[in-house]
Every structure is written in C-alpha cells, then in structure tokens.
Amino acid sequence: MSLPPGFLDELRNRLSLSQVVGRKVMWDTRKSNQGKGDMWAPCPFHQEKSASFHVDDRKGFYYCFGCHAKGDAISFVRETENVDFMEAVEILAREAGMPMPKRDPRAQQKADRRGQLAEVTEMALQFFRLQLKRGGAEAARGYLDRRGLKPETLDRFEIGFAPEGWQHLWDHLRGKGVAEDLILGAGLAKASTKGKNPYDVFRNRIMFPIRDPRGRCIAFGGRAMDPNDNAKYLNSPETELFDKGHSLYNQGPAREAAGKGKPLIVAEGYMDVIALSEAGFGATVAPLGTAVTESQLQLLWRISAEPIIALDGDTAGLRAAMRVIDLALPLLEAGKSLRFALMPEGKDPDDLIRGQGASAMQGVLDEAIPMVDLLWRRETEGQVFDSPERKAALDKALREKIKLIRDPSIRAHYGQAIKDLRWELFRPNRRAAFVPGQGGKRTPWRGKDGPSFNPSTKSSILVVADDAVQTRLREAVILATLVRQPDLIVEFDYQIDRLDCADPDFALLRDKLLDLAHHGDTADLENRLADILGPGVLENLFALPHVAIAPSVRRLGDIETARMTVSEEFAKLQAEKGLTAEIAEAEEELGGVADEAVTWRLQQAAETRNRALRSEQEDNSRYDIGKNGARINRDEREALDRVLGNISFTKRPR
Hints:
By secondary structure, the protein is of the alpha+beta class. The chain folds into five domains: 7-96, DNA Primase, Chain A (Alpha-Beta Complex); 109-242, DNA primase DNAg catalytic core, N-terminal domain; 251-369, Dna Topoisomerase Vi A Subunit, Chain: A, domain 2 (3-Layer(aba) Sandwich); 377-426, no CATH class; 466-631. The chain has 29 helices and 21 strands. The strands form seven sheets. A five-stranded mixed beta sheet has the order 12-11-13-14-15. The N and C termini lie far apart (73 Å). Residues 429-465, 589-595, 622-633 and 642-654 have low confidence and may be disordered.
C-alpha cells in the first residue's frame, strides 16, 4: 500500500519520539533533559546497565552509542514490536489519532507532482530575489532599509520582490517551459474570469518565502507596497504543498536554534521573526498571519516544552493571546505549556528592538508569565467584585475554564493556582464584622485565639479527614477489577483517565492499563503488567483485604459483576468529590470570619456525606459473603432458613 504524500511527515509531526520510546525504556533522569528533548536510557536493543541510548526528540531520531541502533519512531516500533513497516505506521497513526488513508494507486504520481510543484515554487523564489535588485524595486529597497534590514539579512531570509503588473511571473515561468497547471497548482497564479491568460497572485509586494521543516520552499507571504491595497499581507493560497494551519514561518532554523538552548518565541509576523532572529533570538517562528491552530501548537511543543508567546502589545495582540489560551487548555500536559511575554502597549518585537535594542526585548522575555496568570488577568482585569454574586460569577467562569483541561494533574495544579490568586484578591478586601461602639466601622471579629468558629463547624470540617483513605480503597477495587477484566478498560477509559490516584503505584498502574488497552495489547495482562511494573505493585494491590474479598476480583470471567462493581465505585467516587468540593468551598468562604450561612452549609454537606456513608454501611450489613465470593442478602437468607427449618429431610442410605 502506498501512502499519500505528506502523510508520514504529518505523522512524525504529531508524535513525540520520547513518548513512543518511553513505553519501552526507563529514562535516566540525571542524564536526560526533557525540556530540550534530550533523553537517555539503557538501550532496549541490547543488554546494558549504562544509559547509552539517546533520543533527540526535536529531530525525531534515536541512536545507541553501544550497539549503534538508530532510526525514527517508525523504525523503533518495527524493531520492538516485530512488525513490518505498514503495521508500524498503523500503530503510530492510531496513537496520533490519524485515520489510515485508503489505498491510493496514484500515490506515487501525486508524490511526483508535489516534487514538481516544489521546483516551480523554488524557481519563483529566485525570480523574486532577482527582481528586488532591479530598478522597479527601488521603493521596496528603501522600505527595507528604513526597517533596518541589511543586505546580508535580505540574503539570509531570501527576501524578494514581486513587480507591479499582471503577468511578470507567469511569463517568466512559461518562458522556462513550466506547464500552466503547475504554476496554478503552486498557487502562484489565478485563472482569469474574463477569458484572458491567468494573472500573478503577488504584485507590487515584498516577498517572504515560507519553507517547510525539510527546507523546501512551499509558499510565500507578500507585504503590499501600495498603502491602499486591500490586504497589507497576503499569503499563498492553500495547495498540495501548503497548508497554512500546519505550517510555521522560520520553523527549520528555529528548531535548530532551540536545540542549542535558545528559547522558542512565537511572534506575529514576518518582520518580527526577522528582527528577533537578527537580534540573537534565533528560535523564533510566526503562525503566518492567522490565529494559532491546534496543529501549530503541536508543532511548537515538538520544538520546545514551553514556547513563549510574544504577540503585539495592542488590543488585537492581546485578543490573539487569549484565543491561544482557550485553544491550549485542553491540550496541556506535563512538559507541554506556554508562557506569555506582554509587549509594551502599541509595540511589537520589531518596534521594541529597533527603538531600545535587544536588551529591552530580553527584559520582556524574562518577565514572561505562566498561562494561568494571563487566564486570571483576563477574567478579573477591569472588574469589581464587591458582591457575592460577582464573586460567584468569577468562580463559575474559572471553573468552566479549568474543566477544559484533560490532564488530571495539570487540572489540579491550575485549581490550586487559581485558589491562591483568588485568596490574594479577596483577602485584603474582606468585609469585617460590624462591632457596635466602633463608630460604624467594621473590624474583624475574632476570638481570643484567632478566628471564631461554631463548634459544629469544626466537627463538620473533621468529618472529611478520612476522605483520602476512602478514595484509595475505591481506586484499589477499580484497578484490581480492571486487571482481572481488561475488556472493561476501553469501556471506562474516560473515568479511568480522571482517577486522581494519589498513590504513585496506583497512578502508574492506571497509565499502563490505558496505554496497553488503547493499543489492543491486553493479552495475558496480569503477567505483562508484572513485567513492566515489577511484581510488587500487583502483589501489594491484590493483598489488600477489601480487594481480596471483592467478588469482581475473585470471580474470574464474571464480566457483569465486574462491570457493575466498577460502575458503582466510580459513581461513589464522583459523589464523594462533589461533597468534598462543597465543604472546601464553604471553608474557603469562611476566611477567618464567623458566618452562620457558611456554618450551615458545612453542617449540611457533612450530614449529607454521613447519610451516604451510613446508607452504604447499612446496605453492606444486609449481605453476607458466600464461599464463592457472592453477596447474599441476609434478610432473604434468614427467611429461607425458617422455611427449611420446618421441612424434615430423610437421609439417603449410602
């Protein structure tokens, strides 16, 4: 089967080699540098104790200095899974969420055409560069000179000029024997609606070539010289070579510079990238004049774990930064985040560098803030929270944003960061209790030893002291059941992924269950997990008393009992989380001031939780555990015993 052009490039762009390899090796944390994509481990291809196996995550290649094994993600899967090329591609495509293309007998023909289009685009680039040196480009050269671009900079970024007129490039390429359909297919000309010859897309514009990571010229961006032109900047139309949402300007050089330790900066336009690069910030890219897309975010994270978004310091730039936040929240993972460098109002990086120098730009980058701080700023800036309703509206808006984060660990850390910021905002402005005789002033009402609490409030807070223990017990039953009934993992994958698992062994087991199930690799699961995690993790899990007696664990093959148990335990965990959240919110609102309404909320939440626990205990008390692990209703058993007691049995002779 032939793959369509660009499929493998897209597959490699979407995957992180360190994640693919990480399923088979244990990284040497002392030697590895995850932020730079520089990872080391003992080689999986030969027996060794030292970490001589190197993964360069940015370039997408591995190499062993011991046995000299080398390759990319596809070759790694081929060697470790003992599959052929297409099977390896299918495995990785499933992991990347890419559907495998249908068989295309014309794939080679399309690949040849893409090569021809790249050659035509390269010819256009040389034409534009030549035109910049001719008489008709005097105004363009003057503009570039005023912007501070030296001749060597023009050469480095291959800047050119598209002359004014309708068919200069068309005539040039046709004179070189280039077929009309290739010129049109490369996005360099458009067909006329008036029955005339096609006309050039770019006219009277300074031209910036756009190259893919492999170095091929795939498109152009053009800056208009006519101030009355409808589009100040114009990009090539999308073609078989060029997908604007999957490309970045200056991606190849930026990746190389980031690999040498430079911070990855995301600017808004071509001139910003050039100015930053010339000022020493070589790892700079731009999203081609559009809002950053999900595909571009993934490309950025392949280059750097924490790119810095440095958009223009105007209203449009801030709006663009806010859109990036909404796009990035669901995609955040450990080692994948963003920081934001807030440019001075009305300035872009090019303005700042030309006006104040590279040191001023470095100062802005040094003060780049985490994404959570900019999210907080967006929701709070310019607003007054002087009423419970306004505070509640803020809490609701922030909760909705945090819910977008899929990674449980990141979500928890964002929740804590927002809680800290909320405390700083409201604590100094907290309304004090009114005390008669103080001239109408409000002062904090405190007891002798600090904040005064109703005794029932104190007891309600203590009710949740054993929540962590209860949660751990439920997680243990769920995980043990899934190990014995792996067919249920995919069915409950969303709930499994949301398990917090404070116990590190549980967290590791959770991740491996999901990983193996999503790759259809659950045969002989218990033994495989023992090999991966070591025998101690499963032995400790199944040795827990409440796990050992669970019917869902003891009854091998009874999938209905297992399904019911897992479903019930997840439901109880969710209910407990809701109750705990209610108590936590009420506690937070206390803020050192006695409040009868908050005290009442704490009491109600605690009583609700107690009723739930008593109900579960009473439910369990009505059952006995039979010899086969089944739960037997005690009331029914006693009634049956009474009936049987009134029947006489005659013993059969042996």
